[in-house]
Automatic annotation (TrEMBL):
<dbReference type="InterPro" id="IPR005182">
    <property type="entry name" value="YdbS-like_PH"/>
</dbReference>
<feature type="compositionally biased region" description="Low complexity">
    <location>
        <begin position="10"/>
        <end position="93"/>
    </location>
</feature>
<feature type="region of interest" description="Disordered">
    <location>
        <begin position="1"/>
        <end position="100"/>
    </location>
</feature>
<keyword id="KW-1133">Transmembrane helix</keyword>
<protein>
    <submittedName>
        <fullName>Membrane protein YdbS with pleckstrin-like domain</fullName>
    </submittedName>
</protein>
<feature type="transmembrane region" description="Helical">
    <location>
        <begin position="122"/>
        <end position="144"/>
    </location>
</feature>
<feature type="domain" description="YdbS-like PH">
    <location>
        <begin position="188"/>
        <end position="263"/>
    </location>
</feature>
<keyword id="KW-0472">Membrane</keyword>
<dbReference type="Pfam" id="PF03703">
    <property type="entry name" value="bPH_2"/>
</dbReference>
<feature type="transmembrane region" description="Helical">
    <location>
        <begin position="164"/>
        <end position="185"/>
    </location>
</feature>
<keyword id="KW-0812">Transmembrane</keyword>
Amino acid sequence: MSDRADEHSAAAGRAAPVDPAARSGPGAADAPGPAGGLDPVDGPVSGAVADSASGAAADPGPRPAGDSVSGGVADSASGAADPGSRPAADPGSGPAGDFGPGPAGLVRFPLRAPANPVSRKAVALWLLHGLSWSVFVVVGSFFLARWAEDDRWSWLPDWVLGNIWWVPALTALLLLPAAIVEPFWRYAVHRWELSEDVVYTRSGWVSREWAFVPVSRIQTVDKAQGWTERALGLATVEIRTASHAGSSRIKGLDYEVAAGLAASLAHRAEQLRDDAT
């Protein structure tokens, strides 16, 4: 009987719950736990799982080098992005400035002016045309003002009829200076250049136009002269392609220059067509 009582008391001692206060008492921190970190009741439980079960935030601890989980992925799971894990921006992928790499790896360069100016005699040609047109408009406004004053147009206000002669005066004041300035402005803008396979031109004055005509697409090259151009020894080279938008004209060239350019373009276009076949 005594042996059975001892066995029952030993079993009761092994099954008795551990008092938490006994662990937290004096000297509990110095008492070594079971080997391998085994809890005497629940067995081997990691600190992170035990803390998460109790509602406390888990401490992941320092990550070793070469961890298979990157900081950005781990941080994104918790809602915070790691700025150090983002790839560096490619400076060439942004909008290009005046120079440097552009979209799709293209390099942008400033558009230079064509190399060759037109003839200086083109200033006289444009001056003659501008003055002729301006004089025609001024004379027309003079006759219009005289007609309005003589017939006394009733539908015009009295203050307009009383100042009708301001119309030709203002017309002359606006048109004649413009007719004098325009030829010099045009001469500064109009330029042309023939390269190995492209004709490059610039024309206009207030508004400007740049044209690039591939020599391989040229179908006909003509030179033309009006009566004023013939009087000044000038000519216009007309370059025509299959598309009207791709055609171009170079005005204000000396006749010899225009003839030589037309011959060179025709010969070069024929060579390129032969090479293509």
